[in-house]
Design a protein that fits this description.
heterotrimer, A mainly beta, B alpha/beta, C alpha/beta, B: alpha/beta, six-stranded mixed beta sheet, 19 strands, C: alpha/beta, five-stranded parallel beta sheet
């Protein structure tokens, strides 16, 4: 505990303590829209335990990862606010 | 409870029954549609929704082409929930020797005025960069579409209602005796309704009401992913879809992936004859996904949301049963469309309306005659 | 069964006597007791380390003594834990498919314990989809995961015994608690408190939590009406049923207690009644060799979960001490407690009218209230509107619609937990292999 690691959130380097849940780290980093809903609204986590799927972000290039289930690790690259609606990833 | 005698009573409000209801309501007939559950809730709900011209036989090609044309005439008025999109189909050839089949297929389509183009290896890779390298090519059929089947069935039913048809859900047809149907409502009421004509459009349940119909449930499985817009553009099907992959009797799988309007990917397909057990066959699901990943490796990394099963109403000669039933005066059959019920629905509705109204149907009904001689249903052949 | 674990690299088949799904108190107790009885045990847990939600921790020093002692006991028991692993499928012959971030495994067990815990009940209100409106348990999980709340204006509202500890934790973490609201009327809470004489530790906990946020009033009979803000929660309207008022807010924690997570039980085909897995006194479900313990059988908290977990673990291991009289008595007491809990914190009728026409009910598919017809069946609603079709598979809107429309939970289909397609494929492949083995085994007999 207490060791800090660096992750990259939407291109910005952020120092967080190792083992911190990614969702918590993103909250602290000021992320508001973890994802964009199918009708274009910003969304952030509500359950913190993997069941609501609202905290989905792209982690190391893999889309739709639940950030509340992932511990922060050195060098992790995170993209938030990506939508999954029609055409918006094209 | 019954409200006057209908001209036509349609049993089954799947996409086929609902399309028949709309076609007959348009003729001015007083239509009553009943469904044991709700509009579009049976095989329709489980279906992929690929509007596709198929060419395994001449009659199949005629009917799918005719019906797809009717769909395209509807496309302006389909509500957004139908998620109707002109995605086109890519029939993918794995090996160079399959390119002959691609060219033959193009010729057959051309004879029926169906646009189709042969796509070479490089163009295929440009069109669908996530397909594995080394595929020989494909046939691109640009006017095929995808849509969301239960919404389409509901659209037909709603339009029919606007034209005066009555749709009664949670109403089971207990039996059909000539033009009289015994109906039991989920709520408990039981009564008889007589009509000028009865259309059995009850899909896999139709032989229960009309003994002698050669329809058996052929189970299929699908899996849908989370949303990955842009990952694939066309509905992509392996060319060997019916010929090699879907062999008879035993279970079989084939590569078939569909991009939904939502950005989700719908992955198929499988066929098995196992009665009506709705459980997902994990083994077969594994094989089906293995096949899909083989063609499109990126699928392995997409998140799976849900798998489900459905039952195609299959006939021994792979053609639907459309037309009057010789066994009983006043009874018509519109069932047995196997995996093409969504594609063939508006065409079937039009043909049934023609037939009931005593007109010459737009295409010859003889190959679809419900009482035609076929190999025994227990051992389907040809498909 | 031999009990010897066999791991076969590429195919990763793990053989064991007892597989436990879920690593909260029920799962921990089940795994520890079964292993102590000599069974080869594998516990599959989605968390980074055992503890579940209630004992979620980053360091064991953060935990109460009871939790530490059970975690020690689990460690010593020899049960094997698979952390950060999701059960994606299971069959009634105790073959469990597991996916983790970099692979998958199949656990073939002689018996299975379902200890999948609970989920929060979210009752939709206007603004509940805004970022920083979350569940009470959700906020707790994020806080334990390291989220900072120092100086933030926090409201904790909704219902249930979780309000107090979460409000206390927020206060201790430096949040400015602006309101703490319980929808249940004071009379119901007083009735609940009177039943707690049987469970004195819970009374003491309550008093301790309350003292942690002594300066913020704890209002009963009050609830959140709506949340507003530009792209995130900024203001919250509250009511006590007579008057309404607004509070500025940075973080709104609002949920209405817990509902059993019975997805795995339903997938397996276990009997479920009123949203709870039906079990006998040995925690056995309607299926042979499949047991359930803790919240899935009725929400009653961690002490109840420990008791049920112990019984289930012993029973699954074939240990006659599963019928131990003191465990049985404790179990009876906890089942009564579960009833009292559900009754005391039952969400009030007014909460059914919070959502307006535009309020989103299904967050995955953005289905608003106006598109739903209460006379529909669940399946009909789903097919016509896409409600519950998204990645959470009705994990959030399902319980909400049960509250709003009395819709039962829809059919559960594999896979659970949204694994990658490749994992589903591997699992199917292994099932094939195992069934092949089984046929052979049968042939040899």
């Amino acid at each position: 505990m207490g060791e800090s690691v660096e992750i990259v959130v939407d291109g910005e380097r952020v120092r967080v303590s190792e083992g911190m849940t990614l969702a918590s780290a993103l909250m602290d980093a000021g992320v508001i829209a973890f994802r964009v809903s199918v009708s274009g609204a910003p969304r952030a986590p509500i359950c913190g335990m993997g069941s609501c799927f609202e905290c989905r972000v792209t982690v190391n290039g893999r889309q739709h990862q639940r950030s509340c289930l992932i511990p922060c690790a050195e060098g992790m690259v995170v993209e938030t606010g990506s939508g999954a609606g029609r055409g918006d990833a094209e | 409870m019954p409200s006057g005698q209908p001209d036509v009573l349609i049993v089954g409000a799947g996409v086929v029954g609902a399309a028949c209801a709309l076609a007959l309501a348009r003729e001015g007939a007083r239509v009553l549609v009943i469904d044991a559950d709700f509009v579009g809730g049976g095989s329709t709900a489980a279906a992929m929704g690929h509007l596709v011209v198929m060419d395994d036989s001449e009659p199949e090609l005629q009917l799918t082409a005719y019906s797809r044309q009717l769909w395209s005439e509807l496309s302006e008025e389909l509500p957004q929930e139908c998620e109707d999109e002109r995605r086109g189909t890519l029939w993918v050839a794995s090996a160079p020797e399959e390119m002959d089949a691609v060219r033959e297929k193009r010729e057959r389509y051309a004879r029926h005025g169906i646009a189709a183009e042969v796509v070479d290896e490089r163009t295929l890779a440009e069109m669908e960069p996530h397909l594995r390298r080394g595929l020989a090519g494909a046939l691109h059929v640009p006017d095929d579409c995808v849509l969301y089947p239960p919404a389409a069935a509901r659209y037909f039913a709603d339009r029919a209602r606007e034209l005066g048809a009555e749709v009664r859900e949670q109403c089971m047809a207990e039996s059909v005796d000539g033009r009289t149907v015994r109906i039991s409502e989920r709520a408990g009421a039981e009564y008889l309704v007589s009509a000028g004509a009865v259309v059995n459009a009850a899909g896999i349940d139709s032989p229960r009401l009309t003994p002698g119909l050669q329809i058996i449930p052929r189970k299929g499985q699908l899996l849908i992913t989370d949303r990955y817009p842009g990952l694939c553009g066309c509905q992509i099907v392996e060319l060997g879809y019916l010929h090699s992959a879907h062999t008879l009797g035993g279970a079989s799988v084939a590569f078939n992936v569909q991009p939904r309007a939502t950005g989700q990917l719908l992955i198929g397909s499988s066929r098995e004859l196992v009665g009506r057990d709705p459980e997902v066959n994990r083994e077969l699901l594994g094989s089906m996904l293995e096949r899909a990943i083989e063609f499109m490796p990126v699928l392995a990394r997409c998140n799976a949301t849900r798998a489900w099963t459905g039952f195609r109403p299959a006939t021994p000669d792979a053609l639907p049963l459309i037309g009057p039933w010789e066994g009983a005066e006043g009874v018509w059959i519109a069932a047995g469309h196997e995996g093409l019920g969504i594609t063939m629905a508006p065409g079937t509705g039009a043909l049934i309306a023609d037939s009931i109204m005593g007109r010459t149907p737009a295409i010859d009904l003889a190959p679809f005659a419900p009482g035609r001689s076929m190999p025994a249903a227990a051992e389907p052949a040809g498909l | 069964m031999s009990g010897a674990a066999r791991e076969n690299g590429a195919t990763a088949v793990i053989e064991c006597d007892v597989a436990v799904v879920g690593g909260g108190p029920a799962g921990i107790a089940a795994a520890a007791r079964a292993a102590e009885s000599g069974a080869k045990v594998v516990m599959v847990d989605q968390g980074m380390r055992p503890g579940g939600q209630v004992w979620r921790h980053r360091d064991t020093s953060d935990l109460p003594r009871l939790a530490r002692s059970w975690l020690d006991r689990l460690n010593r028991s020899g049960a094997r834990c698979l952390p950060m692993a999701t059960v994606t499928d299971a069959t009634s012959d105790c073959v469990v498919s597991v996916a983790h971030r970099d692979g998958s495994a199949t656990v073939r067990a002689g018996a299975l314990v379902i200890a999948t815990g609970a989920r929060e009940l979210f009752i939709p209100y206007p603004g509940w989809t805004l970022p920083f409106a979350m569940g009470i348990g959700g906020a707790q999980a994020l806080l334990k995961g390291g989220m900072r709340v120092t100086g933030k204006r926090v409201i904790v509202a909704g219902s249930g015994p979780l309000i107090l500890p979460v409000a206390a934790a927020m206060a201790r973490a430096g949040a400015r608690l602006t309101a703490v609201l319980e929808q249940a009327p004071a009379a119901a809470l007083a009735g609940f408190a009177r039943t707690l004489w049987r469970h004195p530790s819970k009374l003491a906990d309550g008093a301790r939590y309350r003292s942690a946020f002594a300066r913020t009033p704890y209002r009963t009979g009050s609830w959140v009406v709506r949340a507003e803000g530009e792209g995130r929660v900024e203001r919250v309207t509250l009511t006590d049923g007579r008057r309404s008022w607004s509070e500025e807010c940075d973080l709104l924690c609002c949920s209405y207690g817990l509902v059993p997570n019975v997805d795995l039980a339903l997938l397996l085909g276990c009997a479920v009644d009123e949203g709870r897995v039906v079990v006998d006194p040995s925690q056995r479900t309607s299926l042979p060799r499949i047991y359930a313990a803790g919240e899935p059988t009725g929400v009653a908290g961690e002490l109840a979960a420990l008791t049920e977990g112990e019984i289930a673990g012993l029973a699954a291991a074939g240990d006659a001490r599963a019928a131990d009289r003191s465990l049985a008595r404790a179990r009876q007491r906890w089942r009564a407690f579960a009833e009292q809990l559900a009754l005391s914190f039952r969400p009030r009728r007014e909460l059914r009218d919070l959502a307006d026409r535009d309020t989103i009910i299904c967050r995955c598919e953005d289905v608003p209230l106006s598109r739903l017809d209460p006379s529909w069946s669940v399946r009909q609603a789903k097919l016509y509107t896409r409600i519950g079709m998204g990645p959470c598979q009705a994990g959030v809107c399902g319980p909400a619609c049960h509250f709003l429309y009395s819709w039962p939970q829809g059919r559960v289909r594999p896979p659970l937990g949204g694994p990658e397609v490749g994992r589903v494929q591997e699992a199917g492949f292994r099932v094939q292999g195992l069934q092949g083995n089984r046929k052979q085994e049968t042939g040899n007999r």
